[in-house]
Amino acid sequence: MRSFGLRDVLGPIMVGPSSSHTAGALRIAQMVRELLDAPPAEVRFTLYGSFARTYQGHGTDRALVAGMLGLHTDDLRIRDSLQMARDQGVTVSFRADPKSRVSHPNTVDVWVRDANGDELTARGESIGGGAARLTMIDGLSVQITGEYNALILYERDVPGVLGHIAGTLGEGGVNIGSVWMYRSRRGGEAFNVLEVDGPVSREVREAILASPDISRMRFVPADGLGRAPDAEGLGEPAMGPDEAEALLPTVDFEDASQLLLHAEAHGRTLGQSFMAREEVCEAMHGRPVAAAERYLDRVLNVMRESAYGPLDGEVRTMGGLIGGESRALSGLASGGDALAGGVDARAATLAMAVLETNASMGRIVAAPTAGSSGVVPGVLLAIDEAVHPGREEMRDALACAAAVGFVVSRNATVAGAEGGCQAEVGTASAMAAAAAARLMGAGPRACLDAAAIALGNLLGLACDPVRGLVEEPCQKRNAAAAANALACARMAVAGVRSIAPFDEVVQAAKRVGASLPMELRETALGGIAACPSCRGCALG
Questions:
Q1: Residue 398 in contact with residue 440, Cβ under 8 Å?
Q2: Angle at 377 between CA 303 and CA 506, to 5 degrees
Q3: Prediction pTM value
Q4: CA distance linking residue 7 with residue 277, whole number of Å
Q5: Domain boundary residue among 222, 248, 268?
Q6: Which one, out of 206, 237, 368, 371, has a CA that is 20 to 30 A from the CA of 12?
Q7: Where does the record place the ACT domain (predicted)?
C-alpha cells in the first residue's frame, strides 16, 4: 500500500470494459511476458472463478493475449489482439474451469512456450482496479505485483550464492527491498525472488549470472502501464527519495479520519491533503508533483472524450445490449421539458455515455473501476457545463474523489468480484459526491459526509452483469449513482450529516460485500442476470 495512490484510484487509463477482467488480466499476461527470454510462440490460458464464467463478455481473452503481445492498458488495439496473435504466428488457446477452488475469483494459469522453445508456467490474480499479482512461477509460490523491479533467480543451494547476488547488487547501487528464498532440498535446486528499489542494469545482471551456481535469471520490471506519465520538463522532485521515504509516514493516511485531521490541521481541502501524500510518493519515484497534476489533466481529457463521443455518433458495444441510450436522454432534455433536463439529468446522460464507450472497448478512466467509470465524469462534467469551474477547481475535485476512493481501496475493496456492485458503483458514487460537494464549496468534513451518505445509500448492491457483459444493468446503475451523488452532495452542503462517519460506512460496506453470496459478485449467476429473459445466456 505504500505507493498506492492517485493512478490506482483514478486509473488505470484503459480500454474497457472491465478493470479487473480486462486491465488486470492484461497486466498478468504482461508480467508473464517479461519473464520470457524470447517472444511467445504458444500460450495456453486456464481461467478460474469469475474469470472462467465471464471472460469473453469482459474481453479477458483479448486482454490476456494483448498482454502477451506487449500492449498496454490504454492501447485501442486490444480489441483486435486475437487477430494480431494470428498474424504474428502466436498460437493461443483458452480453457474455462469454473468449478475448481482457487484463492481469488479472478485467477488464470498461463503456460507459454517461447520462440526459443523454453517453457514457463505461472499463475496470476487480478485483485481489483486494474492491479494484479503473480502468485506462482514454475510451480513455486511468489508474490510479484509489478510495484518494484523483481529478479527471479534459479540456482544451486550452496553457501555464498545469496551473498554473491546481494554483493553484486550493492556494488551496482541497487537496494534490495525484500527477498523470498525457496529450495527443493538441502544442496538441491533453489529459487530466489528479490524486489529492488531501482533499475537493474544489464551489466549488473550479467555479473550476477557470472556465478557458475546460478543457472538462470528472469527479470520483471516495475509496472509501466501508464502509472507514471512523462515528467520531462516538469522540474525536479520536491525532495530526494530518502527524504520522501522518511516523510511518507506523516502523510500515509490509513483512513478518512487521519485524512480529515491532516486537512483541518493544515487548512487544506481533502484533495490538497491527498495530493500532499502524492507529492511524497512522486518524489520517492524521482518525479515532481507536477507529474501528478499533468496526470489529473489527462484524466479529465480522457473522461471528456469517453463521455461526449457516444453523443456525437453511434457506438458498437461488445454484447449489443446497450447503445444509443445517452443520445436518447440527451434528445429528451433538448426538447425543453423542465422535468427532462437539469444537472442531474445531464450527469446521468454523460454517465451512460461513458459506459457505452467502455462497452465498445473504447478508452476510459477506471474511477475506481471500469464498470463504474461513468459516475465521476458524469457528475463533474455536468457541473462543469453548468457553472464552469476553473482548471484548479476541477483538479481539486478530482483529487478529492481520489482521496475517497483511496480510503475505500485501502480499507475494503473496489472489486465487484469481492464486494458486489456496491464496491464499484457505490465507491464511485461516494467519490463523485465528495467531488461535487467540493465544487459547491464544502469543507473536508462535509465532503466526507457526502461520501458516507452516497455509499450508505447503495449498500448491498449486487454485481450481476447480464450475459457476463459490463453493459446491463451496469449502465443504468452508473446513471442512478450519478444522481445519488449529486443528491448526497446537496445534503452535505446544506448541513445534513451522515449518521455514521465515512470510515464506519466503509467497514459496513466491507462486511456487506463479504456476506453477499457468490452469485451476486460478478459471476452473472444471480440478480438481474438470473431473470428468465437472461437465464442461460452467460458467456464462457
A1: no
A2: 125
A3: 0.86
A4: 13
A5: 222
A6: 237
A7: 150-222
